[in-house]
Amino acid sequence: MRTYLVTGGAGFIGSNYIHYMFRKYDNEIRIINVDALTYAGNLENLKAVEDRDNYTFVKADICDKEAITKIFNEYDIDRVVHFAAESHVDRSIKNPEVFVQTNVLGTLVLLNCAKQAWETEDGFKSGKKFLHVSTDEVYGSLEHEGEYFYETTPYDPHSPYSASKASSDMIVKSYIDTYKFPANITNCSNNYGPYQFPEKLIPLIINNALQGKKLPVYGDGKNVRDWLYVDDHAKAIDMVQEKGRIGETYNIGGHNEKQNIEIIHIILDTLNEMLPNGDPRRELVSKDLITYVEDRKGHDRRYAIAPDKIKAEIGWYPETMFAEGIKLTIKWFFENEEWMKHVTSGDYQKYYTEMYD
Fold this sequence. Notes:
The protein is an alpha/beta fold. It has a single domain (2-356), classed as NAD(P)-binding Rossmann-like Domain (Rossmann fold, 3-Layer(aba) Sandwich), CATH 3.40.50.720. The chain has helices spanning 12-25, 65-74, 89-94, 96-118, 160-179, 201-210, 230-243, 260-274, 308-314, 322-335, 337-345, 348-356; strands at residues 2-7, 29-35, 55-59, 79-82, 119-120, 123-124, 129-135, 183-188, 190-192, 215-218, 224-229, 249-252, 257-259, 290-293. A hairpin with a 2-residue loop joins β5 (119-120) and β6. It is globular, with a radius of gyration of 20 Å.
């Protein structure tokens, strides 16, 4: 049985990845989920798998070398999938130190622990792989239509968040080059889907619209992002682990470029389409709620990933177009209103905090 160490598995993308892996491999794998349970870590995301014999949760900070070393000593880890990161740009502007601590030093601790556990006199044990999950934001901003981010695009980060991720990417690259460490890096575009924390654009707009609250839009709303449905991302990560060439970087994009204001209009139109007649929330959902606010500092104008390499080498491509993905996402939020209430009220932290503290 192959054993995966998933860092940040209680977060949005990490928890979706864990669900995807159990759907695909069931009892053929074991997953050790390590998460510090900061505000974005929510073990309610994993209620459906928490009682599995082949799933283990460990509350630990990836910066805690002793705790991470203990995990490598206790379990024969075959694969590391490293999601754990501080990831909200606004928070990085207010408190950049936390981002450097977690994203840079935490990555270094993981690399050193994996290296120590896997290294032999002749190199590294067969079958061991480390996958570092990064972001397209490390590339900076695209100014012209028709331009795309490629794996060869120079790094040009513009926020403390993207700078910390760029730094962690470089540390992983240095281990690949210096030690021939068995790692890959993936840089993905904006994810959306179930379990996303409602400070992010799409769940924020869905939640606010259903309550008749203002829908904040930075600047003129014309900043462009490439949107990737989270299940497609999970599939890409698994395929890179299985088929990717050691040492390579793979860009994962959704072919769903849209302006932020377009996203908001699509969400509102889709809510009106999906809400049944007679539902009182239909009267709350209105484009009059759209409110333009002061632009974010260092706000990149456009991101767009060209996933040509991963398609050519590995055979992955995004299967979920935005029109379908946003319906799946809204349907999930309709069916999981209690989850959203627990997150927005802070109740999601109470039970598990008491359990693990």
